[in-house]
Amino acid sequence: MLKLVLLEPPYVFWDRTMDRIRDGEESVTGWGVLVLAAVARQHGYDVAIVDAKGGGITLEDAAAQVAAHRPDVLGVSATTISITNGAHIAAAVRERLPNLVTVVGGPHVSAAPEATLRAFPEFDYGISGEGELALFALLDALAAGERPDELIGVIARTDDGGIRANCRAPYIDDVDSLPFPAWDLLGDAFPHRFGPSIFNYRCTPVATLVTSRGCPFSCTFCDRSTSGTRGRYHSVEYVMEMCRQLAAMGTRHVLFYDDLFTVKKKRVVELCEAMIRAKLPFTWSCNSHPNLLDLPTLKLMKRAGCWQVAYGIESGSQRVLNVVKHEVRLPRLKETLRLTREAGIRAKGYLMVGHPTEDVASLEETRQFLAEADLDIAQVTKFTPYPGTPAYPTIQQYGTFTENWERMNAMQFTFIPNGLTEDILEEYFHRCYRAFYSRPRVLFGVVRAFAAQPSYIPRFLRYSRAYIAGIWRHRRAERNADVAAALSSATDQVRAAALRFDGLWWRKFAYLGSVYGPEWWKRYSPPWIAAIIFLCVRRNRRGAIANMRRVLGAQGWWRDHWNGLKVFIGFAHCVNEALECLSPRPKPITIERPAHDPIEATIKEGRGVVIVTCHFGNWDVAARTLARYGRPFNLVMAREINATTAEYVRAAREAAGMRILLSDSSVYGPFNMLRALRRNEILALQLDRPIGGEAARRVEFFGAPALFQGGALRLARLAGTPVFPVFVARRGPRHYRIVIGTEHHVPRHASVDEMDRVLASIVAEFEDVVREYPDQWFQFAPFWPDDAAAGPTIAAVPRAGTTDRAAARAR
């Protein structure tokens, strides 16, 4: 008995370092491979399946898995973005099994038969069209010692080194004659360990079904080389028997992956009625053309278990739709989306940017459409003219096309329309996503989806980590060159890094999760999010690790990185609870206050107070608590690094009772601060801002000189007010401890040396607190610059009253 292995190779992305992004992609074995395996068994073959699409499987691992079966024939099912990897795996297997016969099938070779075999000598033969008949005609001919040159659907190499591509394999009219998919070859993993893309299923386990072949529509971007334009449908009873088998296996959600599940309304109604009668235990999703559904049909689909319908929208510009999908009219499309959600079904939209004839006006129309569309989920990709699509033969008339199969993945602009540039397309690609996912209703829906299906979370985090890290690696050289040319100081470089991830969109997303998310999300998502950011922000990661190494001492590579990660995790928890605290629906917070509060006594005397703190713990929680003193509270802060978030942060803090004074707004800033103190108000400033300036002083901190800001002491001297160090340490979920240090006075005529001694005493108190709670010092830039040793340094001031825990750590 001949051994046949059917392989689905991993995808290739635009950068080899991005291959791990497959962790977030589908891990569902292709329907065509499962059916082909079942047909192979009918023909007497011993068959196995190797699915290398998901899970980050390397080419070497995939080749080893194939070779372990010791096949006589290797069948590779490949698309344009996986054909290259398929060839590499075939070559690696042949090195181990020299007599191996390799056959390639799938949409790519069906669309470009001669070009594929010419480009990849690793493949002996190709199959054009549906393979259930042509593949086994080829294998039977080879087994009989006959030449397959003239077999229909076969692509073969000729004796003179040429390639002969015969006409495409005939379509199978009676699709019910095909056996059910060979699900058993997937082992115990099916369906329990299989997962489609997140947000595409309601619950797990998940399985896929294809109930028809062919699509009658003529979209210019769609390849119908394999299945054709004529619809061929499984009978209702055939489909129901497959559904019953999946239900018996424990399936709880089914994805109907037909090109157009709803193309025949009568059949959809019959299927839905049969599902209702059968009382199937799963929900399901499907794809549809925007013109095909009405409200009664949608309501029937909902009763039958339909959870989501995905529509091919493609563009928000009617002019572009007239070119690429001429049957669609935007008013009808929008009405279909509205009816879908009215029926209680989620609506998903597929769109692309960069179509032929696209211009800035049409891109803006698509962005505006996404800002208003009645969708729950949207996926935007980049137009790619694949071989076999109607757009492919004439694409050069509409712009510049670079045909590189490894890069033709709908995530890279290989086609640039006339009059546009890649930069413009890339900008609008991101604008479209921002326009949709910055909408509160959409964000709330995403949060609810995470709450309803926690299995999304680890896959989303893995996908996000790979995507963000890959994007930043891909652009790092160009970005760093721009930053180096534009920025001269280390502080500016840190600010430039913050611009990449500290935008308003992320603030709003975090706000929704912190305020409206379920309790488990608030408790357990911050560490995961912090870990992703820790992996992505290289400069900030190094800064946190370097600072913790100074505070805790060098403890080895793994321990040093863990200490740095704990800083990110602590910061994520504090941001989460600060957003909740500043929201209209705050949760109760436990705050430990000292038994004796010297600040309250000072306020009662009718004097202003200067509070000094650092980037430590959760100051937003403390600031709201300090409002109980009954005096206006002024928070001095630097202008937000990212201008898009400045007004957002300011409004949130002022709504919580704080008055914001910008330290870098103008030369009048210090006068406004002094005026507040003379009105007997509270003024809070930070000492550890990573900037220089006249007020910056070198103070010994953890045994080495570091810069601290002395401006607060100058203000206290001029206003005649006391200075209190105040730090807010997080003890646990919604549990904080306020540490109030020693009251300090700066005489009216104090010298620079006297003020330096006060500053050194305050820094010593801060050092004690950091020793006790090292992972709550949220300083993400290296705090001990190399040049800090130059010039005089203020010696550390030993303090009495250091806590036992801090003293133990110091020893």
Topology readout:
Layout: E1 3-8, H1 31-42, E2 46-51, H2 59-68, E3 73-77, H3 83-96, E4 101-105, H4 107-111, H5 113-119, E5 125-127, H6 131-143, E6 154-157, E7 163-165, E8 206-209, E9 212-213, E10 232-233, H7 236-248, E11 253-256, H8 265-278, E12 283-288, H9 295-303, E13 306-314, H10 318-324, H11 330-342, E14 346-353, H12 360-372, E15 377-382, E16 399-401, E17 415-417, H13 422-437, H14 440-452, H15 456-486, H16 490-499, H17 504-516, H18 519-536, H19 538-552, H20 557-581, E18 590-592, H21 598-604, E19 609-613, H22 619-626, E20 633-637, H23 643-655, E21 658-662, H24 669-678, E22 682-686, E23 696-701, E24 704-709, H25 711-719, E25 723-732, E26 735-740, H26 752-772, H27 804-810
Parallel strand pairs: 1-2, 1-3, 3-4, 4-5, 8-11, 11-12, 12-13, 13-14, 14-15, 18-26, 19-22, 19-25, 20-21, 20-22
Antiparallel strand pairs: 5-6, 6-7, 9-10, 16-17, 23-24, 25-26
Biggest sheet details: 7 strands, mixed
Cα(first) to Cα(last) distance is 74 Å
Measured by DSSP, the beta-strand proportion falls in 15-25%
Shape summary: elongated
The main sheet orders its strands as 2-1-3-4-5-6-7
Query: How many distinct helices?
Result: 27
In round numbers, the mean pLDDT is: 84
What's the count of strands? 26
Please tell me how large the radius of gyration is. 32 Å
Runs in which pLDDT lies below 50 for 5 or more consecutive residues are 14-24, 483-501, 799-811
Q: How many structural domains does the protein architecture include?
A: 3
Derived from helix and strand composition plus strand pairing, the structural class reads alpha/beta
Q: Please give the share of residues in helix.
A: 40-55%
